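idk why but the lab printer keeps eating my pages so im just putting this in chat instead. protein + nicotinamide-adenine-dinucleotide:
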Amino acid sequence: MKPQLVITGAAGRMGRRIVALAVESQDFTIAAAIDRKDHPDLGKDAGLLAGIEAINVPLSATFPKEADVMIDFSSPEAAESHIQHCIDNQSALVLGTTGLSQVHLDRAQVAARAIPVLVAANTSVGMNLLFSIVGKVAASLGEDYDIEIVEHHHRFKKDAPSGTALTLASNIAAATSRKYPECLVQGRSGKDAVRQAGTIGMHAVRAGDIVGYHEVMFSALGETVTLSHTAHSRDVFVRGAIRAARWLVAKEPGLYSMQDVLGLK
Ligand code: NAD
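predcted complex ->
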């Protein structure tokens, strides 16, 4: 039997591609395509909304009674109820929504005592490789290297800086004894904005339809080392999320990351 997959935020930019690529993968039965109660497309076939053939699953605001795994790319406001739903139904959860508060993250941690939960601000394989090396690079270069993170995303993105940029910064902080998030300086401006040693600068560019670009710059007097990642299409995140769901569904309750899925830990 294929695992039963629930997709939340199914009418969104990510959700539609998750529907399309989950069907293409043939690894899951789509148990439900969920969106908010007042979404104008409720009742329409989720496959047609995703630009593929009809899959006989209507976009709905009602959760199915049974499911094995949920992939959530919706909104932070919805995260709480989606986490609770997974606990109630003993379903695994891939939480890809970004902009989550500490309260949401604590909630995910508590949920992980009962169900397998994977929280990933970025589900791309390449970015997760960057997550795993960025701290080592910062530690090796040493404290004389100023660190600035610049991220570019499309004009529709709600949260800033991106969850990915924050993860990069937090990994650097953990590897270099910086205090996080106190070490962050966001969008430096003003007449007294001289760089302070030990800080990590964060800059969010929002423009057009940029899918996702992250750059971590390490700069000292005389040289700059830059690590960067470019996402060419949203499908890179979708394929990673589907890979994560396939992996997570067989796991014991616990809090997991893409690093676990990719064996990078
Ligand atoms: P979007 O606005 O296009 O889609 C969000 C969808 O969620 C919409 O259809 C909306 O109606 C729905 N939604 C809102 N509240 C809901 C609720 N209570 N219940 C069910 N559905 C609800 O946004 P998007 O570009 O698809 O991104 C969705 C989320 O995924 C964002 O948080 C984004 O930052 C994140 N994201 C994560 C990654 C990653 O790799 N983890 C990659 C891209 C985007």
